[in-house]
Design brief:
The protein is mainly beta and about 150 residues long. About 15% of the residues lie in helices and about 50% in strands. The strands form 2 sheets. The protein has a 6-stranded mixed sheet with strand order 2-3-9-8-5-6, with no helix packed on it. The chain has a 3-stranded antiparallel sheet with strand order 1-4-7, with no helix packed on it. A hairpin with a 2-residue loop joins strand 2 and strand 3. The longest helix is centred in the N-terminal third of the chain and has 22 residues. Pfam families: DUF4625 (PF15418). It comes from Persicobacter diffluens.
Length: about 150
């Protein structure tokens, strides 16, 4: 009888254990601000930063389960307009940085400098900024916003 009860309960317990992970949607991300100023392009507001300046970020990441890492990704807007200003010797800038969280918090209030934008050699114009977050179950979410890198004055 004990074997029968054990064989019946084990699959049932594993079902509940898996259900916790499955119902969890992954970290929630909210980007509050990026850059040092705002500009208007075609009646739309964007965050912006001058080339050569630090790129500040204010964001919130919340998890249903402990967070294990977050990542920044930056790349030029590769939309159809292709109106990226700059000299032919300048290249589209890309940046990626991953931060591993050893203390595995449930919530992170980010007020940090992502990186310093190079002062020379990159195209100015519209870029995409992505903030990714991953939890202990490997669930990952991201939030993307567009911003502008302005030519150094």
């Amino acid at each position: 009888m004990k074997k029968f009860t054990l064989l019946f309960l084990l699959p049932l317990l594993s079902l509940f254990a898996c259900n916790t992970e499955e119902s969890q949607s992954g970290p929630q991300i909210s980007i509050n601000s990026l850059g040092t100023e705002t500009i208007t392009v075609e009646d739309e507001q964007f965050f912006a930063v001058q080339s050569g300046e630090a790129l500040p970020l204010s964001a919130m990441i919340k998890g249903d389960t402990p967070l294990t890492e977050y990542r920044f990704e930056i790349h030029i807007d590769d939309g159809n307009d292709h109106n990226h200003r700059g000299k032919s010797s300048e290249v589209a800038w890309e940046f990626t940085k991953t931060i591993l969280l050893t203390d595995q918090p449930m919530e992170i209030d980010l007020n940090t400098t992502v990186t310093e934008v190079p002062s020379t050699g990159i195209k100015s114009g519209k870029y995409h900024f992505g903030l990714y977050a991953r939890d202990e179950f490997g669930k990952e979410n991201s939030e993307y916003i567009d911003f502008y890198i302005l030519e150094e004055e």
